[in-house]
Amino acid sequence: MEGTPLRSVPVRPLHPVEPADAIAHVAERLPELGARERSALALVDLAGRSRVDAAREVALEQPTLAEALARGRKALRRTLEPLAAGGWCERAERLISDRLDGALGAPGKARLDAHLGGCERCETHERRLVQARDLLLSDLLAQRPRPAAAASRPELSVVDARQPAAGADLLRWWALTLVAALLVIAGVVIAVLAVAGAL
User: Fold this and answer.
1) Is 8 exposed, middle or buried (0-12, 13-18, 19+ CB in 10 A)?
2) Axis crossing angle, helix 106-118 with helix 88-100, rounded to the nearest 10
């Protein structure tokens, strides 16, 4: 594994994103995208839909949605860095898109890893794509109000996909801290009452 580059892992929204908000945001940021590409990018990358659910919502076959998603992600990456491509690099972009959603099988993964091992251009594509996705999501979350249920919690706009339970861990920590504080207060009140009763 020595020498294998670390792959970027995209962030995920902590709170649900409305599909209509996501689609409008993508249309504003990438006005040249077609309707299929816009919907695929918005539903999967911003609203957090699985490919199966996104395909069902926009009435597309899954392979068609996957192609639209790869084209949308390519346009998104171009907002950060234009990269010339042809031949295998075009196919690698589709495989990178599939891998981002966990939809890449073992044969495709082996071909992609072999290609990335010798193609700095495609490594840059993958890195810039993840950065562009993160920026698109951060922009959307900065513009929209937080859900009412989340208003009383500490600000957590995005969660790293490698640590899906980070928000839950933080909530558990706050709950345990609150319980401990209540127990200390109860102990002090009992002690004061005991002393007052002894007088």
Assistant:
1) middle
2) 120
Whole-number Å distance between alpha carbons of 58 and 40: 8
**Site of tokens 């972009």:** 93
Question: Which secondary structure element, helix H or strand E, spans residue 87, and what is its range?
Answer: none
- For residue range 95-124, what is the model confidence (pLDDT) as tens digits? 999 999 999 999 999 999 999 999 999 999
d(CA 155, CA 19): 22
d(CA 54, CA 78): 23
Mean pLDDT of 43-47: 93
| Both tokens assigned to 48 | 């957090």
DSSP 149: G
Q: Look up residue 47 and give its two tokens.
A: 């609203």
Q: Distances from the Cα of 132 to the Cαs of 80, 139, 181, in angstroms? A: 7, 11, 43
**Contact present, 8 and 130 (Cβ < 8 Å):** yes
